[in-house]
Amino acid sequence: MWIVRVALDRPYTFIVFALMIVILSGVAITRTPTDIFPNINIPVVAVDWTYTGLNPEEMEGRLTTPYERQLTKTVDNIQHVESTTLNGQAIVKIFLQPGAGLDTANAQITSISQAILNKLPPGTLPPLIINYSASSVTILQLGLSGKGLSEQRLNDLGLNLLQPQRVNVPGAVIPYPYGGKQRQVAINLLPDLMQAKGLSPTDVLNAVANQNLVLPTGTVKVDEFEYDTSVSSSPRTIQELNDLPIKVSGTATTYLRDKSTPCMLHAPTPLTMASSTSRSRSLPKNISSPT
After folding, report:
1. Which pLDDT band, with edges at 50, 70 and 90, does 15 fall under?
2. Interstrand relation of 219-222 and 137-144 (parallel, antiparallel or unpaired)
3. Three-state SS for 260?
4. Is the Cα dihedral 154, 156, 158, 162 positive or negative?
5. What beta strand segments (E) does 182-244 contain?
6. What is the pLDDT, as a whole number, of residue 49?
7. What's the CA gap between 217 and 108, in Å, rounded?
8. What letters, b where the CB count within 10 A reaches 16 and e where it falls short, cover 137-172?
9. Residue 209: in which H helix or E strand, if any?
């Protein structure tokens, strides 16, 4: 009861204290940043490797394991490393010590990712490096569907239209869309016909590679005009792909259509969402605590 007695003896002092609390509360409310989750200072760097055609076992032995071994020799302040290997894809997460410098870790991870390329399977592309913290969680998962739209079209809309429009949200990280069908051209070889002509899959591969080139173009000046020129160095349609010559024996020419059946396919679908009675794709959105 002593505090009540003090308040009765010194009423003006407590009135001043009350006014200070009201004023400071208003200042604190206006200056305190709004945050949904606390900022957990445990930096994480994710490295996404892609090599189409390798099964998970080959992907782990030829890419994931050598890369993890090189990380422990180069990157400082590693707490632990986690990896997930899928068909044609490997995701390596490097968890750093609390308070570790993310800029230094990014530089070291980027450096070793470029240096190890010559030790990985031929044709391996540089990985995608993504930074996020332990407080980053998925707050929104957007499913795309449309009446009359194919899964290839939904994939194009999510990747090229919706994803670029969401990057301006403060603190938001838009991952790569999942699902849908990414268009690919597959060449189905006919072994019996190829064996009859003495052809191997390597011959077909070399013929397609040598006739599907990206070449620079130039201009042609006619009188006072200068025209842009184009080079027909790569097939644009399935029919043009069928017309590629594979082998010439005397006066006989073997075309691609004679020993194979090129067709339009799609890559394996990692995730497909069910929306009512239609198939759709997923576009997750993560949010990070502001720093």
Report:
1. confident
2. unpaired
3. strand
4. negative
5. 183-189, 219-222, 225-228
6. 92
7. 39
8. eeeeebbbbeeeeebeebbbbbbeeebeeeeeeeee
9. helix 201-210
- What 3-state class would DSSP assign to 92? strand
Instruction: Report pLDDT for 9.
Output: 81
Torsions phi, psi of 239, nearest 5? -65, -40
Please, what is the average pLDDT of the chain? 79
Distance CA(95)–CA(12), nearest Å, equals 56
Describe the crossing of helices 65-74 and 102-115 by its angle, rounded to 10 degrees. 130
**Rounded distance between C-alpha atoms, residue 192 and residue 279, angstroms:** 38
User: Alpha helix (H) ranges present in the chain?
Assistant: 2-9, 11-31, 56-59, 65-74, 102-115, 151-157, 163-166, 191-196, 201-210, 238-242, 256-259
pLDDT in tens, 23-32: 988 888 887 7
Write out 16-41 in H/E/C secondary structure: HHHHHHHHHHHHHHHHCCCCCCCCCC
* Nearest CA among 183, 187, 185 for reference residue 257: 187
Chain segment 117-137, per-residue pLDDT in tens: 988 888 888 998 888 765 566
User: What residues are paired with 50 via a beta bridge?
Assistant: 89
Measure the CA–CA gap between 257 and 176, rounded to whole angstroms.
Answer: 36
| Furthest C-alpha separation in the chain | 118
pTM over 0.90: no
Burial of 211 per CB tally in 10 Å (0-12, 13-18, 19+): middle
pLDDT at 82 over 80: yes
Closest CA relative to residue 206, chosen from 263, 253, 243, 256: 256
Q: Which two tokens stand for residue 50?
A: 């892609």
- Token duo for residue 281: 């794709």
Q: Is 287 helix (H, G, I), strand (E, B) or coil?
A: strand
